[in-house]
């Protein structure tokens, strides 16, 4: 019989027991290597949803410095379970865990959004747009899903202008897919199409598509946009909004990312164990929408791959670790997608600083839907009163008790079980921690010295930036 939780600790009534003075963490038993996720010190949960009756989605909430990386992300990377897409906003997980994962048989990839010209792997979102079998043009749903990620509705603003710009952006993306050679189909080309032609020239270029394809998706979208927003002055205003949204793809860095010969392959992640690290800046947010387009396309591609597989499930489960989840742009329809991925062997780990942060990005109703679709919730502490009130309500305790929770403790909520106050795990106690350090040192003394055990710290941040990575670098 599979044991879901390896530690006792159920409570009586609605009171969460106060912890005793903690002892230094003992090494985790080797049993953790047999599978599952580590949620807290001595607490693991299995990944077999048929056995647990739960989904594998986790939400981890904690203010900066509470140990979200050390206490949750790093220990679960060391578990070497399935394929992973990891948001590495601290810049150190790839170097620290990558060598170990490669020694465990993983294909380890780095997509560097902070230094795109030197990223070992590339990402061209337009390469994930399928062809429509009837018209021979681009799949309209794929185009509109991509433009929704690149030009989302801004919460609190007038959505008319955002949606008008999105309609014209769909037309431009469609034009590049229909009229340009395959090796030029990227957002850099879309940007140049917009900025290098007048409105009159664009009208003529789109109308010329009719000669080759009477069912042209691009021409249909362009005509719809000119019909709805016919005045030239309004059209110019919309094109100005579009130019602002595309400006971050106009320079050499994104072009290098789009045209890199080694491109990420999301479908392959469901067939072979792969670890894709996304090096994302937590100070420069200019590429957030491109990153969220990646998340959206990864989820769509993995769902389609699962639907085409025997049993409707991925052969290799895939987990997406969304660090700093609510600090950037929204992933389109994420509140809907998260509710349907369990049966396909796809799961997400959502890392937040507060519930208020999530509500600000998605709105209260969609934020509740996202939280309700995570059967495991860890709260590591913080000063946000609204989040403390949310946790106190779930735990059956007072807001003050939540705010006064000792450093290193956490509240653990699992659907169908009583809440528990637990101690966070330390990665040093994981059976593979020593192997991780050894793999780093074999990779090179610079790598080992950069990431000695005491450098990563509770925040997970390194004290120096990541070095540039020549294309094709391997840990071997």
TrEMBL record:
Leader peptide range in chain numbering: none
Membrane topology note: Multi-pass membrane protein
CC per GO annotation: plasma membrane
Compartments, record wording: Cell membrane
Pfam family, one: T4SS-DNA_transf
Predominant localisation class: membrane
Gene3D superfamilies attached to this UniProt entry: Magnesium chelatase subunit I, C-Terminal domain, P-loop containing nucleotide triphosphate hydrolases
InterPro entries noted in UniProt: P-loop_NTPase, T4SS-coupling_protein, TraG/VirD4
Protein keywords: Cell membrane, Membrane, Transmembrane, Transmembrane helix
Region ranges (Disordered): 454-476
Family per similarity comment: Belongs to the VirD4/TraG family.
Protein's name according to its UniProt entry: Uncharacterized protein
Source species: Bifidobacterium catulorum
